[in-house]
Write the structure tokens for this entry.
Amino acid sequence: MNVRRHRGMTLVEILVAMALFSIFTLTLTQLLMGGMRTYKRGQAISSLRSDLKLAMETVANDVRVANSIGGLVGGTKSLGFNLTTYRQDLTNASQTETTATTISYSLSADEGVLIRTVGTTSTLVARDLLVNSVAGSSESYFLLSNDESDENNPNMEVEIRLSALRYVGTDEQRLSMVTHAMASATYAATYSNKRVDMIPVKQIGDLCRPLRRPLVR
């Protein structure tokens, strides 16, 4: 009578199986972690893009209806400006008087934020901005181009550029956007009701790259 002997796995076979299983598990883990990092980076860029676009459209819409713009010098980058809008006072019997609304925008280099102020009320428009206290070297700024050669139809174009940086873990997510808002406005406080247009927001950078130097705020 023949008795068949069943032999178990040797130690070498067990070690080889464990090594193969470990390699498979490690590879799968790295793929999952890489996918999560990519997803989080995409979410961060999407959030930055939405926040910057909303902020720029807020500023541009105010510029479009402005009747006078101050605090900006043509061809010189600025970290802030103010604008005034004059509207007819419909409560007045003659409807000839106007009500002035002054709005101020300012970029803070210390906190990296854009603030909109109407009267005594200030609102945070954008955060995590790259702002240098020296406007000429700042990645976020306002720039005015004006043509007042025609006194009856003065044209102003305000370039609005905002650059922001957010972190996802140790990864830096950086985005820059720019738009140009055009207005029939002057430096004088005069009422006008001219038609104005706005050039749509254009994305000029969607970068995931390290800064050359640490960000100091």
Remarks:
- Residues 24-207 form one domain.
